[in-house]
Amino acid sequence: MSATVFEKKGSLLTVKPEGRLDTAASSILSDELEAQLDGVTEIIMDFEKVEYIASSGLRVLLMAEQRMEDCGGKMKLIHVNEYIIAIFDLVGFMDVITVERV
């Protein structure tokens, strides 16, 4: 992952990761995301530039989803490519996380 852009407007946080959400990148994303969550009740994860996600990346998404549920908020993923959607389908994420197809 080369960089993640965070855009916070009030209680809305838009997160735009890039590249591969492998173990190293997911750890960085988790730390950066955690630092941004104060006062956030809605997260939009823009996966337009994400090409791969490992199980560690899935854990980051579950953590964020759980945080939003705990505060009565919501999270959705947008611009998710078919490869990642296939992974979400395989592990049952489509029943847990709101995903907008490409």
Strand line-up in the sheet with most strands: 1-2-4-6-7
Strand content: 25-35%
Counting DSSP E segments of at least 2 residues, the number of strands comes to 7
CATH superfamily: STAS domain
Which sequence of SSEs, written as H and E, runs from N to C?
EEEHEEHEHE
- Roughly what percent helix? 25-40%
Apparent shape? globular
N- to C-terminal distance:
21 Å
Description:
The protein has 102 residues and is of the alpha/beta class. The chain has a single domain, classed as STAS domain (Transcription Regulator spoIIAA), CATH 3.30.750.24. The protein contains three helices and seven strands. It has helices spanning 23-36, 55-70, 82-91; strands at residues 5-9, 12-16, 18-21, 42-46, 49-53, 74-80, 98-101. The strands form two sheets. The chain has a five-stranded mixed β-sheet. A hairpin with a 2-residue loop joins strand 1 (5-9) and strand 2. The longest helix is centred in the middle third of the chain and has 16 residues, at 55-70. The relative contact order is 0.18.
In short:
By secondary structure, the chain is of the alpha/beta class. It contains three helices and seven strands; from the N terminus they run βββαββαβαβ.
List keywords for this structure.
single chain, 102 residues, alpha/beta, Transcription Regulator spoIIAA, 5-stranded mixed sheet, two-stranded parallel ribbon, 3 helices, 39% helix
